[in-house]
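Re: adenosine-5'-triphosphate structure - here you go.
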Amino acid sequence: MSLEVTGLEVAYGRTRAVRGLTLRVEPGEIVTVLGANGAGKTSLLRALQGAVKPAGGQIVYNGHDLTGQGAAARVRAGIALVPEGRQIFVSMTVHENLLMGGYLRGDDKLNRDVEAIYDRFPNLASRRDMRASVLSGGEQQMLAVGRALVARPSLVMLDEPSLGLSPLFVERLFGLIREINAEGLSILLVEQNTHMALETATRGYVLELGQVTREGPAERLAADASMAEAYLGGG
Ligand code: ATP
């Protein structure tokens, strides 16, 4: 269940958002991708999700070449995205949002898995028939994670999940990421909260102008003085 990205290119017209990016996520890893605004982090995740077509390179998951495939094929292959800004459906109920996560599933265990999400998040259970708009930002983030889990992924990608959350919810969110990882899911975590991301991840990549400029074990990146100067202050 490893993700292998090789020489990935994402371009919007003349803007080359991702340039020759090579990255891997091994089974059971938490890998973080760090970088400033505009470094290309969201473009990377959108290419992995199948929302944008890469201009070059290769995306292989679990031995399957997904490069030319659409978003549904990525979900079926076991890759789920928790998008930037959560992107939950605010006019739908909490329950309907969770069901959306399973829209590609053809099995009859969806309801059981949605109930498991309610066991994990009691705050969502008590609001299951309310519109998602009544949830706090932190609860909406939990709902976005829950919705991704309902797809039964083996790899969860999260795009700046801590953005805009209170410190308490940030702690809970990173706790949740560790928890689902301990249950066997691989994690690709895009963050601007460098400090928390490196504390949680096993390995990391630093993106600058669409290119990987540093990579390695999380402790080594955290100890890298120039890295600290460039990023840790902003975390
Ligand atoms: P942020 O933290 O702001 O989301 P990011 O690291 O995720 O930043 P991207 O959103 O991937 O970076 O953007 C990378 C580059 O691509 C930027 O120069 C951005 O302006 C450009 N870009 C992103 N999306 C588009 C688009 N739809 N059309 C044109 N240019 C885009």
